[in-house]
Amino acid sequence: MNLEFSPEDIAFREEVRTFIEENYPADIKGKDREELSKEQFLSWHQVLGKKGWSVPSWPTEYGGTGWTPTQKYIWSEENARADTLMPLPFAVSMVGPVIYTFGSQEHKEKYLPGIVDGTTWWCQGFSEPGAGSDLAGLKTTAVRDGDEWVINGQKTWTTLGQFADMGFFLCRTNPDVKKQEGISFILIPMDTPGVEVRPIIMTDGGHEVNEVWLTDVRVPVENLVGEENKGWTYAKFLLAHERTGIAGVARSKRGIEKLREIATKELDNGKPLIENPDFAEKISKLEIDLTALEFTELRSLSAMQAGKGPGPESSLLKIKGTEIQQRLTELTIEAVGNYAAPYFRGFPEEGGNRFPIGPSYAHHALPDYLNMRKTSIYGGSNEIQRNIIAKAVLGL
Amino acid sequence: MDFSFTEEQNMIRDSLSRMIREQYDWETRNKVITSESGWRPEMWAQFAELGLFMAPFSEEDGGLGGNAVDAMVIMEEFGKGLVVEPFVPSVVLGGGFLKHGGSAAQKEEFLAPMMGGETIFAFAYAEPTSRFNLNDVTTTAKANGSSYVLNGQKSVVLGAPWATHLVVTARTSGDRFDESGISVFIVPKDAAGISTRDYPTMDGYRASEVYFENVEVSGDAMIGEEGAAFPLIEKVTDEGIAAICSEACGAMEIANADTIEYAKQRKQFNVPISTFQVLQHRMVDMFIEQQQSVSMTYQVTLRLEEDADTRKKAASAAKVQIGNSGRFIGQAATQIHGGMGVTDELRLGHYFKRLSLIDTQFGNVDYHLRRYASIAEKPVAIAAE
Q1: Which of B3, B317, B382 sits opposite A1 (nearest CB)?
Q2: Cβ atoms within 10 A of the Cβ of A193, count?
């Protein structure tokens, strides 16, 4: 047992750092996600695709890098350090692993290359207005009609669906069995007639998620992934995969560094806020929680290297990771004080009046805080994660 | 980076786990801790025979070539069995002072008998008014020719009733809170002028108040340089912290397992109480606290040899985690056990007691959060924008 980086690891870190410095697209550096076009969103993903680094965790035969846990750790650290916009999880961490694990040869050939090279934008069609934590209670139906599925229903919380080329949807294909046993996993091109994407504006003022309405949407039968009525199994597999990356340790470490910078600049009784022992201990406490999470993730990576998981313990990473992300935004609001108040987005007209009031680090403090409330709700709420651990780990 | 255990470490775990299961069962332990002496010298001899006291030392020092990871493995098993024999005072602390600060002659004299279990150390550092401050030392050591004369009182010296030697911190110069001017001595416990009041602790150990009245020790008994022992004291104490963090992880594992078992068996409203979601989520949080504690124990153990600030932060971070988690698990486990949880009939209460006192040993959560912050939270250098 040791924490040392081998000479190979150190060389790898240099290689990654240099690659990011030399290749990260200049036009997206430091930009707010809301300001990015679809092309800009995908640009780093595409650079990584050419380099062969866009899907590190995949099996090498499908484009994975075969990196050791240490190399993956270095990879996330370096990307967090450079504040890069990583490939979105929907393609890389969610539908991709489902396709290479359960999809047909045709699916793999047709869809995996577009995920690897970052040319296809995927979105997720899981939640419905009546199916949140009780996801298996979903009502969207897919009915077989000759060589086609005919799909009707409404999905919601579809993140960045406004840009999507393809969507992966859970649909009910058998209403007469136990609810988990009548669900299928179906791929739908988002330009299919009958697919309508409507924006949902969130408390931070942003358009990040959407409703997706499906009215007599017809797709070929071969768009079913795996077996009919086995979709719930694939969904659980996908969510376990999603949870492993969800801890966001490297990003939160960077976030604490930024928080310390803010607390150094902000004054409290004429002295840097960070010299206020109450506030200093809050940051320390958060960093201690994050250190514990970091080592839990390293243990999990190490177990995966030994051929285990990602199992239900990934729920722990999701719970603690999101609690920490949220706490970070809380402390940032505390740190910026009065300048948490000014609101810029779309007021009085979009992009028209971005006069700089207060320090730039304060501009996003409150929107980020509001936005990050989603993290303990999405990907299976943290209460659902506790149910998973209770059942699958503790046997309760 | 590597999180796997060596073959030797796995062997130590397996043999020790079996030994504790077979010879340290609940009833036996209860008899021992309430007996006159409060421990079993024959158990201590068996631990020595198993090589436990040699495990974390280099071959050069006469050990088996292991390190703090070996101590971590041992302490986790000791935590599961609530083993009271003084491994931490004698091997981790006494051995630690010798390993890092001992002269060749001192190592020669003390290490082999310590590894054999014949020489037993206890670490006398805390004083009635020092609380957790390692630099608040009022016990004095005055030079007298080539020897020193010790005067003062040390409090709650764990393992002292069983010790053959005390490792004592004393002030050779400077004022009460000065970090410089503190020295460390190895003193035979039967030296003239030492008296003790021995007592059991709430968690089944034995400790002493130790009084030094004109105790004369030879200059050879000093570990390291006169007045410059503070960094060594901090380092060895941090190693002690790593060890009891691992002990806590073992204790948490049993407390959690017992709670789950109890909740599955205990019926109220005609169903096992383990079916209640509010209790399930509490037990999940107990599991999470335990896992985070294990992670933090790895973290501190693997950082003990890094630079002083990194090591101190690592130790304090781990101690904050273990203090909070131990309290949460102990209290929640007791709550879920209901009335039975507050009786002395179940072993659970003993794990709760130990977890509670681990928080105060070597400094509690508040102390270590402040220590961590004093290193981590300073104004940062900001690059020009």
Answers
A1: B3
A2: 9
Residue A45, min C-alpha distance to chain B (Å): 27
Q: What is the pLDDT of residues B30-43, one digit of tens each?
A: 999 999 999 999 99
Cβ atoms within 10 Å, residue B32: 17
Cβ pair A390:B283 closer than 8 A: yes
Residue B112 near residue B62 (C-beta atoms within 8 A):
yes
For the entire predicted model, the pTM comes to 0.94
Domains and CATH numbers, chain A: 7-87 (no CATH), 122-229 (2.40.110.10), 246-393 (1.20.140.10)
Helix, strand, coil in percent for chain B, rounding step 5? 55, 15, 30
- Residues paired with residue A201 on neighbouring β-strands, in sequence order: A207
C-alpha A303: how far from chain center: 22
Q: pLDDT of B180-195, one tens digit each? A: 999 999 999 999 999 9
The nearest CA of chain B is from the CA of A18 a distance in Å of 20
Residues of chain A with Cβ-Cβ distance to B1 below 8 Å are: 2-5, 9, 69-70, 73, 298
On whether the CB atoms of residues A367 and A333 are closer than 8 A, the answer is no
Q: How many CB atoms lie within 10 A of CB B186?
A: 22
Q: From the first residue on, what is the mean pLDDT of each consecutive set of 10 residues in chain A (396 residues)?
A: 91 97 93 86 96 95 92 92 92 95 97 97 97 95 98 97 98 97 98 98 92 98 97 90 78 96 96 96 98 93 74 87 97 96 67 69 92 93 95 94
Mark yes or no for CB contact A396/B299 under 8 Å: no
| Domains located in chain B, CATH noted | 7-118 (1.10.540.10), 123-228 (2.40.110.10), 231-376 (1.20.140.10)
Q: Is A8 a catalytic residue?
A: no
